[in-house]
Here is the input.
Amino acid sequence: MKKLIADRAERIDASGIRKVFALAASLEDPVNFSIGQPDFDVPDELKEEAIEAIRAGANKYTQTSGDEQLREKVTQRLKDDFGWENPAGLVTSGVSGGILLALLVLVDPGDEVIMPDPYFVMYKHLVNMLGGRCIFVDSYPRFDLPVDAIAKAIGPKTKLIAVNSPCNPTGMVYSQERLSELAKVAAEHNVPVLSDEIYEKFSYDGRCESIAGYYDKTLVLRGFSKSYAMTGWRLGYAAANEPLRAVIEEMTKIQQYTFVCAPSPFQKAAITAIDYDVGALVNAYRRKRDLIYDGLKGKFELVRPSGAFYAFVKAPNGDATAYVEKAIKNNLLIIPGNVFSERDTHFRISYATSDEKIRHGIEILHRLR
Ligand SMILES: Cc1ncc(COP(=O)(O)O)c(C=O)c1O
Here is the structure.
């Protein structure tokens, strides 16, 4: 008999993160620095919009490409942000849905996808699942966008460059200068860029720039999960300007036969969310960033994060898995670097938790050094 599980599923190895969660299951009220979602709830006004939408009957399928008003709004934003003239947009089931559709459309077996290492974990596993090959470009120890090394990594099989700013897991926000340098390199080689901007609002030391402002072969993925704490609402969007409109059209075709559409009442609430000011929430997270950075600098090796809600810290003995196991035994949940990297020297902290827990976590980290 043929084996039950297809090769493509077996190409995904999620053992690293599973191990952490298995170890964590036994803990009672731990300091949880492992969670990739905000500790605040969806703002009441937006909850009301969703409830109202359900009551008003927005419970059926929407068009595959998304609620028209929402799509208009997001494409208008991209016109304003990047001067794009004729963008195409698709409302997706989370940015995760957008990443999957984008890679399904772009990556054939044997194609290479270049990404800075550390990287968001999903890229690696999905590229592998599709039979593509990840080309990891090391960005240690500063985690800046490694433009020269990316340029060197481009070859005949390169299909795509994936960038994520603000970055999970490093908390880096790439500068305008670096992004425009990368835009130049990508344009020289005619390679499209996937820009995952899910943390765009969480930028603490100035505006988060996008490579889309410098390069029109950019596929932009943005979302609602993090900015409005709607991780369970499963909403995001993908957009591209003229040269990549066909990518959005193909993604829409595949969405039609997979997700069908993003959740419809939440799309209605997202129309209001787009204009909702999350400045106060971001200010609170800037203070949390300061708390974690000031609490660890000097004693730990880390770069000051400027966005998202993560810090990527060198393990005191350089062995992240060993340090994480020790931390978990001491009621502190952190994630070893090898979940997001080909190295295992650092660990990821998510400071999306209460100030009190952050202080307690810092105390434990110091004790275990
Ligand atoms: C960099 C990055 N991209 C995409 C996602 C997926 O988010 P969602 O599918 O909830 O929109 C996450 C979630 O952690 C993320 O960190």
